[in-house]
């Protein structure tokens, strides 16, 4: 699967930014379908005409909401890795586990209800919806990230290892949103660490034979 084509973005005016800030909070807290443009406009302190002048449709607001969350997550992850991994300790194993650590930190601060992309996909599964490429693209990007990291650990099996790491990561985000048991991202990190250790040990065993 290729990286989904990303949609064009809306130029932000002050009024548009107020609309988007209100929509982001409401969509994440209540769900996309449950929130109408009347409520968004009221919460933003603008008229419906202003809302439509700036965005054209509710669908476009949804696109901006999800694209903004995606941008902030990618920037957060990059900054987290810069802050927590120095050159001396940035082993392939450490880089993989740092992604889980970053997700745990992000979830604690910004993700009480789980992954916004997973939540949105529960409501938007039609590929023709303009927000669908944002949802799919974010998950394709995460798979590519894990696969790239896996390549430094298991070059001959990077695809399988990358998919497994992503399944651990995404399952943890879903469990976090559902609040089924405490700290699922930390649990997924521990399982990822055990998996990486097993893969490394297997590779060493093959090399010694």
What key attributes describe this structure?
209 residues; mainly alpha
Describe this structure in words.
The chain is an all-alpha fold. Helices cover 73% and strands 0% of the residues. The chain starts with 13 loop residues before the first helix and ends with a helix. The model has no long low-confidence stretch (mean pLDDT 93). It is built from 9 helices and no strands. α1 crosses α2, α4 (58-84) crosses α5 and α5 runs antiparallel to α9 (184-208).
The residue ranges in which pLDDT falls below 50 over 5 or more consecutive positions are none
Main sheet record: none
Radius of gyration: 19 Å
DSSP strand count: 0
What's the end-to-end separation, in Å? 36 Å
SSE string, helix = H, strand = E?
Answer: HHHHHHHHH
**Percent of residues in helices:** over 70%
Instruction: Compute the number of helices.
Output: 9
Q: What structural category arises from helix and sheet content?
A: mainly alpha
In terms of DSSP E residues, the strand content is: under 5%
Shape: elongated
- Overall pLDDT level: 93
